[in-house]
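Supplementary notes (optional reading)

For those who missed the lab, this is the record we used. Protein: Pop1 N-terminal domain-containing protein. Length: 364 residues.
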Amino acid sequence: MSSNKTPNETQKEQLSGKQKRREKNRQIREIRSHNKTDNILSQDIPNISGPIDASKFAMARISEINSMQSAIKKASYALNELAFQSLPRGLRRRTASHNLNRLPARLRAKAAKETFQSSSNATLKRKKVRKIKRPVKLVDEYLRRQKTKKWLETHMWHTKRMKMTNIWGYRIASKPNVKSSRITYKSFTRLCIAHDASYMACVELKGQFNDIGKALNTITDLGLPSVMSERYIKGNRIGHSNLYEHLGYPTKLICPISFLWKPSNDVLWLWIHPSAYHEALQFIQQSIHEQQLTVEINDLRQEILRFELIGPRSTALLQTVLDPVSDEKHEGNKLWKDLKSLRSSCSLSPGSVIGLLVNDPRLK
């Protein structure tokens, strides 16, 4: 039995779904040309130049005009994308739906037409250009703003991209302005994320090794390795414990802490969360006073910066940024150069500390 299908129909059945959609969009946008054999106007036009009849000229091109109008109408329906949707995610603004001047200049006319179709009361407002008066002495102005809360070193970078909040005596970023979290998740799983943890309070205990150990043994977690453990006293590993009230273990917990010994074993650095800083400092002083120990306490909150890098490319990033000085006596620099081929820190023991003396990365 012979098939009644035309060659065009047979060819369409062989196309995939994506190819069919492309062919449909191509046909929508195609403006068919007029057939020369059907040109009625050629019979009425004289051989020499002269006046023409407008009605006859339009009737002769009526098929082309109708084809062009239908193609324009179908193409406008095919492009079902609003002006706001044509922008990338990073440039979309919620306020642009109320104030069209928030959009780029090339899209304002299209957005105004779309807004007018949805609401006849919408008007395009003129944007008032307001000059921002900058203070003459920026440093003095920034110091004035930090009277009630401290700024981190990365404050100017964060304040342009994050929502800032006042907490624990600092001005800290709470959440990003970008609504999408896909970029953050991608950086966390594939690249690297840097977190400015300089708000963590650093306390320095200076004195004899035994006195520092006795002072902390009465206020730290007895179920975890002591601060005087052999694994920590060399200064090549950071330790973690919990801080309690004086002789209050295990019920009177204050906060978790991190600590690091200097290789000389006469200085210990403690990192305490800022929300529990004053309470923790009070019980450290109480432990030293009741045992009559000679330990000096120094506040290093405004002197030490702390950055946390998270992600599989963290080590590779540090290898690119940090350039150790050429000093053969410095053991940390030699070790860092030996680890140059290391792409991930998973092979290192947790909490490892490497002391480096590097050149200023800004002078590269």
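If you only remember one thing from this example: The first helix runs from residue 7 to 14.
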